[in-house]
């Protein structure tokens, strides 16, 4: 068995992974929900070093994310937008099927399912979406030997009840070519979802996630000689889970099975790094685990671990394990007005034109540009050049999850004050404080973070560094879909203001 790479392979906000291997190259995609651009594409040749090469939803004309607000349920924060993509390759074409969940007052939680494609994944140009009829989420594709293409997905039977359905599809038009049929309901765990069909040794195997995406998350499987079933469940289900264990990696699920060029079996899945106190500040990340899938047998996966023995020495080549092409890893909220952002010649400097919509707005796009938080321990910082005299704008640095939850440190030019604000609508938390500062030409804002705390600090001009607040990361840890994104923002009181940010560093 080959060495398992250091986990997570895609750290930070990287849930619902799907992976396809094309010869010696691996390509992986994740959910992005309410953020633009959406559906990041990562690639690797060794499962160790990964590069973010583009985003499948990269043009605003492809799709609107206006109605991707977050609903607060008693046991979950459910964000709309882009759910659980699947990536596949067939006849020299890459396909991604995905769901855009739309939250409107009159149509809560409507699922719009679509497929996009590209002939050249390296160019980063994907087609406009072709929509198809599927009342549910987590669509996946299976290309059979006879040329037929099947769509399998998590079908909504009634609110909060799902099952795995299948139908034949024409990917060019999105038209159904067969009736939709239920093929499996799982083993009894709630929310059967995330299905993938694989064909091996004359068997059709369906791998699914069930039990919910948090405490009870697990991977189960069933197989049939006929793609339409009936499907026989594996006697060893679940074949992957961390439920009921004390493993550091918890909530393991949503797995994609694949083999490397040498024939070794692997699983790529989501999980969270959970500290003993219940903190999992990074949210759902992408992990890798080894497995076995012998001829005619059931698949099996090893327990997901962070750092297996000997891996650090084996991979100590000094190369970054996650990199990105210039600019592709920047994120905005929902449907940004891209003309409000102008680069100053480097990705560490940007001018943002403020808008009146704040981070708390459920549908509009506040002026924000940021990146996924990639490290448990790190420092993010920015320098704000003092806006013109008389400007009334609030600008700063924020740890953002959605309109209900963010933690920020900011300059308020209307009162010449530095402040912080914690908002967590799920926990019904609200904290804030401000301090007067002298007017200077530059203000330096910093957010230091560890697994247990956020430390918000500032300095004015050449002044000394002052800690404004220390926040327990539990106050930003919730049962949700998303992960933390850190970036710069600017909000005004009705008059657009150009705010210059320099030395933007996001860890």
Explain this structure to me?
The strands form 9 sheets. This protein has a 7-stranded antiparallel β-sheet with strand order 27-28-39-30-35-36-37, with no helix packed on it. A 6-stranded antiparallel β-sheet has the order 29-38-31-32-33-34, with no helix packed on it. It has 2 domains: 18-324, Glycosyl hydrolase domain, family 43 (Tachylectin-2, Chain A, 5 Propeller); 332-505, Jelly Rolls (Sandwich). It is built from 1 helix and 39 strands. The chain is mainly beta. Mean pLDDT is 94; it is low at 308-314. It has one helix spanning 311-314; strands at 18-22, 25-29, 35-36, 38-44, 50-57, 70-73, 76-79, 81-90, 93-102, 110-118, 130-132, 136-143, 149-158, 161-168, 181-184, 193-200, 203-210, 218-224, 232-233, 240-241, 249-259, 265-273, 285-292, 300-301, 322-324, 332-333, 341-343, 350-353, 367-372, 378-385, 393-402, 405-412, 417-424, 429-436, 442-449, 453-460, 466-472, 485-492, 498-505. The longest helix is centred in the middle third of the chain and has 4 residues, at 311-314.
Quick recap of the structure?
This protein is mainly beta. The chain has one helix at about 310-315; strands spanning about 20, 25-30, 35, 40-45, 50-55, 70-75, 75-80, 80-90, 95-100, 110-120, 130, 135-145, 150-160, 160-170, 180-185, 195-200, 205-210, 220-225, 230-235, 240, 250-260, 265-275, 285-290, 300, 320-325, 330-335, 340-345, 350-355, 365-370, 380-385, 395-400, 405-410, 415-425, 430-435, 440-450, 455-460, 465-470, 485-490, 500-505.
């Amino acid at each position: 068995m080959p060495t398992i790479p250091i986990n997570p392979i895609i750290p930070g906000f990287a849930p619902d992974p799907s992976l396809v291997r094309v010869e010696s190259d691996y390509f992986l995609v994740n959910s992005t929900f309410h953020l633009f651009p959406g559906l990041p594409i990562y690639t690797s040749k060794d499962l160790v070093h990964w590069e973010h090469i583009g985003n499948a939803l990269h043009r605003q004309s492809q799709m609107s994310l206006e109605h991707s607000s977050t609903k607060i349920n008693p046991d979950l924060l459910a964000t709309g937008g882009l759910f659980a993509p699947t990536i596949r390759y067939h006849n020299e074409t890459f396909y991604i099927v995905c769901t855009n969940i739309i939250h409107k007052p009159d149509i809560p939680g409507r699922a719009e399912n679509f497929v996009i494609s590209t002939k050249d994944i390296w160019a980063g140009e994907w087609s406009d979406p072709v929509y198809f009829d599927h009342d549910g989420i987590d669509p996946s594709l299976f290309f059979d030997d006879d040329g037929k293409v099947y769509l399998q997905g998590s079908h909504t039977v009634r609110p909060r009840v799902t099952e795995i359905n299948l139908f034949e599809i024409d990917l060019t038009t999105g038209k159904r070519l067969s009736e939709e049929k239920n093929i499996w309901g799982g083993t009894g765990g709630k929310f059967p979802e995330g299905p993938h069909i694989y064909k091996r040794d004359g068997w059709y195997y369906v791998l699914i996630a069930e039990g919910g995406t948090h405490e009870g998350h697990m991977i189960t499987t069933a197989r049939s000689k006929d793609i339409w079933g009936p499907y026989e469940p594996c006697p060893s289900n679940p074949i992957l889970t961390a439920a009921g264990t004390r493993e550091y990696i918890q909530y393991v699920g949503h797995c994609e099975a694949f083999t490397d060029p040498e024939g070794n079996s692997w699983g790529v899945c989501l999980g969270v790094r959970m500290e003993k106190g219940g903190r999992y500040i990074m949210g759902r990340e992408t992990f890798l685990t080894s497995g076995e899938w012998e001829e005619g047998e059931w698949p099996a996966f090893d327990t997901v671990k962070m750092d297996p023995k000997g891996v650090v020495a084996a991979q100590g080549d000094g190369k970054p394990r996650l990199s990105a092409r210039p600019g592709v890893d920047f994120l905005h909220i929902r449907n940004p007005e891209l003309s409000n952002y102008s680069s100053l010649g480097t990705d560490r400097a940007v001018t943002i034109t403020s808008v009146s919509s704040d981070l708390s707005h459920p549908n509009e796009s506040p002026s924000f540009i940021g990146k996924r938080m990639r490290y448990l321990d790190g420092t993010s910082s920015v320098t704000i050049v003092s806006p013109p005299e008389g400007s009334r704008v609030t600008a700063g640095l924020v740890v953002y999850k959605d309109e209900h939850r963010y933690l920020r440190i900011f300059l308020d030019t209307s009162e010449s004050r530095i402040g912080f604000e914690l908002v967590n609508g799920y926990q019904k938390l609200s904290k804030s404080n401000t301090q007067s500062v002298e007017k200077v030409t530059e203000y330096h804002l910093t957010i230091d973070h560890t697994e247990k705390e956020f430390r918000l600090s500032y300095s004015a001009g050449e002044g000394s560094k002052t800690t404004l607040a220390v926040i327990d990361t539990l106050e930003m840890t919730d049962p949700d879909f998303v992960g933390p994104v850190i970036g710069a923002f600017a909000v005004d009181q009705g008059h657009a203001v150009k705010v210059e940010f320099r030395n933007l560093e996001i860890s």
